[in-house]
Design goal:
By secondary structure, the chain is mainly alpha-helical. The chain is about 80% helix and about 0% strand. It is built from 20 helices and no strands. It is globular and about 60 Å long.
Length: about 425
């Protein structure tokens, strides 16, 4: 059944509030989550793994970064279960409180030199809690917009995905500011902590917004009709296992590319001779462009379908992978900016932005929170492990051609999976 393109005035004003809430909430959540990725590339190898040599410390730092991504599917399952059982809105409030509290705790965490091995152990624990929080956040935020939308679902749902680069703009911007106004010694001593502590302020803003939205109409209808299920996870695994696997494959390449462009590139570019502030400023610019790119490409999917846009983004990203590292190796700031802007703002935006609507359109209402979250977060493991894998390959003597081939292979996997899923744009989320 086709998506309705009509709606009452009340519906349109409601979607505006819902979209604003999902975008702002997602921005705050991803500010916290992605702030860690920047710190992992620049600081944590020195602050929490000072007993290791620089290369091994970098790998260990990226290992803690990956731990958050490992925890994200767990968050998707746990919060997805209760989101499908008791409501989307309640879970969104809980995930935000958890994420904000953890970020402040990271900002207060003692270093290895102060408390020894307990420091990296506590860091990993807090990172896992971060992963659980963001794993539950995404599905709820996407479904609140997708299930409220009476038209242009691709665009409205993509505001949640646009919150990720917007959070990156804010997090890298604050981190870059601290790197600029402090000496290298001050930055390692306390400057990196300030962005984490600012999460307390963002938490207050986010909670105020989240508490003023209404529950998803699709979920309310489900409860009224008594069509909910006791175990959403079993419902997905029993009735949609193929869909779940294809959803994971469809998003995997996008996340490998994301981990490369937003995390590994920082470490690689600094190693190639670029100043930390230059790399962070370039990433801030590309992340700002990604917000516009995600919204523009996702709006296009409402006209031509999800599949053509995602397929195009995946194919171009596979080719771009072979240009990225040679251009960074030139040491030219112009090429650095060109690479990250073209990669993140244009190519990756087409690949990643439409996934919000696509994932939500694959599952039934009674298990949609769980199914969409699990598919998306399992795919998200690509972003967590790509920097770790690439750092290990580099230490083992692997050249950049190997790294590019890995990226391209995952992109081609996504092409196959998206083709197998078929088009989802016209599915009515209120009818299944």
């Amino acid at each position: 059944m086709a998506v309705s393109t009509s709606g009452t005035g009340r519906g349109h004003s409601s979607i505006g509030r819902i979209v604003a809430s999902s975008f702002t909430g997602s921005l705050i959540e991803y500010y916290d989550f992605l702030l860690y990725s920047t710190a992992a590339a620049l600081v944590f190898n020195v602050v929490f793994f000072s007993d290791l040599d620089p290369a091994t410390g970098t790998i260990a730092s990226f290992g803690t970064f990956a731990a958050g991504y490992v925890a994200r599917p767990l968050g998707g399952v746990v919060f997805g279960h209760f989101g499908d059982r008791v409501g989307r809105k309640k879970m969104l409030v809980l995930t935000m409180v958890l994420m904000g509290g953890v970020s402040v705790a990271i900002g207060l965490l003692p270093t290895y030199d102060q408390i020894g091995l307990a420091a990296p152990l506590l860091l990993v624990t807090l990172r896992i809690l971060q992963g659980i929080a963001v794993g539950g956040e995404w599905g709820g935020a996407v479904l609140m917009t997708a299930e409220h939308a009476t038209s242009r679902r691709g665009l409205w749902a993509s505001f949640t995905n646009a919150g990720a680069p917007a959070g990156m703009v804010l997090s890298t911007g604050v981190m870059a500011l601290m790197a600029t106004i402090t000496t290298p010694e001050q930055f390692l001593a306390w400057g990196w902590r300030v962005p984490f502590l600012l999460s307390a302020v963002l938490l207050g803003v986010g909670l105020w917004i989240r508490l003023h939205i209404t529950e998803s109409p699709a979920f309310e209808k489900l409860k009224q009709d008594s069509r909910d299920t006791r175990s959403p996870l079993l419902d997905v695994l029993r009735h949609r296992p193929r869909t779940l696997l294809l959803a994971v494959g469809a998003g995997l390449g996008a996340f490998v590319a994301q981990g490369t462009l937003t995390t590994f590139t920082i470490s690689y570019a600094v190693g190639a001779g670029f100043a930390r502030s230059t790399v962070l400023n370039a990433l801030t610019v590309s992340s700002a462009g990604a917000v516009a790119g995600i919204l523009a490409w996702s709006a296009l999917t409402d006209r031509v379908g999800r599949r053509p846009v995602v397929l195009g983004g995946a194919a171009v990203m596979a080719a771009f992978a072979y240009l990225l590292f040679p251009l960074l190796d030139t040491g030219d700031t112009l090429w650095l900016v060109t690479c990250v802007v073209l990669g993140q703002s244009v190519i990756h935006a087409a690949y990643y932005g439409p996934l919000a609507a696509l994932m939500s359109e694959l599952f039934s209402t009674r298990s949609r929170y769980t199914g969409a979250s699990l598919g998306y977060q399992l795919a998200g493991l690509g972003a967590g492990f790509a920097p770790l894998l690439f750092a290990a390959l580099r230490q083992a003597g692997g050249g950049t051609i190997v790294l590019s081939t890995v990226i391209a292979a995952f992109c081609l996997l996504s092409v196959v999976c998206v083709l197998a899923l078929g088009e989802t744009r016209t599915r009515d989320l209120s009818q299944d």
